[in-house]
Every structure is written in C-alpha cells, then in structure tokens.
Amino acid sequence: MSPLPSTIPAIVRTRVRAAVHRPARLTPEEAAGRALTLRLVSLLLQYPDSELTAARAELTAAVEAMPATPAAEHLAGFTDWFTAQDPEALERHYVEMFDLRRRSSLYLTYYLHGDTRRRGMALLTLNQRYRAAGWDTGGAELPDHLPVVLEFAALAGPGGGEAPLRQHRRGLELIHRALTDADSPYRHLLAALLTLLPPPTEADRAAVDRLAAEGPPDEEVGLDPYGAYGEGEFAPPGTFVPPMPAPPTRIPPAPTSRTESRR
Prior knowledge:
Blueprint (H helix, E strand, L loop, with lengths): L9 H12 L6 H17 L5 H5 L1 H9 L5 H15 L2 H13 L9 H5 L3 H16 L13 H11 L6 H5 L1 H13 L5 H8 L7 H13 L43 H5 L1
C-alpha cells in the first residue's frame, strides 16, 4: 500500500490505517470458525498433561470437522503428530521448546519489552483489558501467556479481543521462526494463528530479524511493577492508582493530673 499523502489531516490518516488493519466484518459462521481456531490453538499450546493427552481423539475430530481453510490444514498437521506421540515424549518436547528456549517462549510481552520495567506496565495493562471485558483469568498464568491471550481473543471477538495478538505480531513471528528452525510440529499451531492476522509488513520482517539477532531489551528488574504499584511508580498512562493511605492520626494520651496537663 502506497503512503498516504501528507496533505491528509493526521487524524484521517490514522483512521484510514486503522481501517486497513481492522478485520473485515464476518458472518456468524465465519466468526464461529475463527473463535474455534483460536480456542484449539490455545488448548494445543498448553502443557500436554494427562488431561490434554486424554482428549487427543476429541481434539483431532474437531479439527477434521472444520471447513477447509489454511488454518485447518496447519492444525491437522499438528494433530497428526500429536496423536501419534507417547505422552512422555510430548512432555519432554514441550519443555524443550517452550521452557528451555527463550526465543520460543510463550510470554508475549517478553519479545516487545524484554526484562525491563516496561514489561511490568504491559502486563498490568493487559490484565486491565481482560477485567474491563468482564473476564477473570484466575491468575494461574501471567496475562501475556499465549494460550491466555488466545482464549481472550476467542471470547471477545476479532476487534478488541484480537488486538493483543496484532500488537504482538512480531513476537508471534519470532516464535514461529524459532519453532520452524527447531523443526518442531508446534510450528503448525503458530502458522494456523498467523493466517488469522494481517500479513506482516516490511517493517515487521525487519524487526523480527533484529529480534532474532539481538534479542529483546535487557534490564534485569524482574516483574515487580506488575500488580504492585504502591505509590504509582511505573504505572502506565491512564492507569488508576489508588492513593496511598494517610498516616494514622496520633492522639496524645489524656493527662492524668493537672500537673501533667501543664507540662
């Protein structure tokens, strides 16, 4: 797409660009199919514990019943492998791909902010987005864990629900590249997800190349700002930070005699 003329007012250019990235209006059937794809990717990206591996037949049947789409084809490529593996082998492979390799970690804000204070802000903002939509994650995982983000996208729909996925498009591309380089079947799940997002721009590709070569920002401060804003330090713009409680009023003890009162 050619650049918009500079003579167009900035607000108009912004709205046009937003319209370009906004998902097209979907039919109810298309919206349901999109939500199913997101839920399946969310489920299949979770740790393959006994409950998930016991449901492999049902998950495979759900994929096979989907209309023929690029996303469904990628999902089928994953479930063919997933159903054929020994459960212990699945667990080992999952840990190797997602727990031991930083470039295929499933925590999206890491790719955008690294281990910096800004990551804490991003986590809080994402959690606030969930709460504003009336959704409680339960706190078992950080709000940027990809299966959590995918479940929210499936529940809230392609507009605001998928906004976090679009925001972290470059991180998703890097995860897909890392899984592809490792020849992991989990690459099919990321490929299925990426078919639902706008195509990457040249700027996206260049940014992913830089991430792959240099990694994200690095500032070893941990995630203290997430959910612990005390006096408002590091709070993102627009965040409501309750005021610090006032110090207790000190009331001197009542005098016990006229002499003590004069003192």
